[in-house]
From TrEMBL:
Keywords: Oxidoreductase, Porphyrin biosynthesis. It comes from Ataeniobius toweri. This is coproporphyrinogen oxidase. SUPFAM superfamilies: Coproporphyrinogen III oxidase. It comes from the Eukaryota. The keyword Cell membrane does not apply. Homodimer. Pathway: Porphyrin-containing compound metabolism; protoporphyrin-IX biosynthesis; protoporphyrinogen-IX from coproporphyrinogen-III (O2 route): step 1/1. Its EC number is 1.3.3.3. Belongs to the aerobic coproporphyrinogen-III oxidase family.
């Protein structure tokens, strides 16, 4: 979507891909502790996910980003390794403490339904992941982020991922509605574009 009344640019991408893992990708996964045994050096995989970035027109409405994904590899004996990853984060141009509380609290409630440490652990991971070192600044106010989540079992992890994905609307739409009619100056709009470009 582009040039709407509320959203300047917004996109949702759904991906389903499969094939053979490249040696470079396998090496990177092994560096994260994955033990991968391919058949004749080949590792069949499938991956799927949904991701979105929403850029609002009004600089008082933050940008939101989320992605949730599933990855599966078939090993030489036919067994499968799987894991989930993803997260949701918010990038305001102008920080509103009430908005930040709503956003983080909604994510925390979703995480707490599944594990008491998920929110704290995944918030820290998100803060590290979206820290721009060469600028010494964060991309936004964070959120949650995780990868390689493969326990306690596939069904429970999938339920957790679904809970997180279902928080996107309740943690973002109230913020959009709250600031929808906020006035803004050309300077504030320019600053939004500068921040967005970073």
């Amino acid at each position: 979507m582009q040039d709407g009344k509320v959203f300047e640019k917004a996109g949702v991408n759904v991906s389903v891909v499969f094939g053979y893992l490249t040696e470079e990708a396998a090496k990177q996964m092994r560096s994260r502790g994955k033990v991968l045994k391919g058949k004749d050096g080949k590792l069949p995989f499938c991956a799927m996910g949904v991701s979105s970035v929403i850029h609002p027109k009004n600089p008082h409405i933050p940008t939101v980003h989320f992605n949730y994904r599933y990855f599966e590899i078939e090993e030489e004996d036919g067994s499968k390794q799987w894991w989930f990853g993803g997260g949701t984060d918010l990038t305001p141009v102008y920080i509103d403490k009430e908005d930040a509380f709503l956003f983080h609290n909604t994510l925390k409630e979703a995480c707490d339904k599944h594990h008491p440490k998920y929110y704290a652990d995944f918030k820290k991971w998100c803060d590290r992941y979206f820290y721009v070192r060469h600028r010494r600044e964060t991309r936004g106010i964070g959120g949650i982020f995780f990868d390689d989540l493969d326990s306690p079992n596939q069904e429970e992890v999938f339920n957790f991922v679904k809970s997180c994905a279902r928080t996107v609307v309740p943690c973002y739409l109230p913020i959009v509605k709250k600031h929808l009619n906020d006035s803004f100056t050309p300077e504030e709009k320019d600053w939004q574009q500068v921040r967005r470009g970073r």
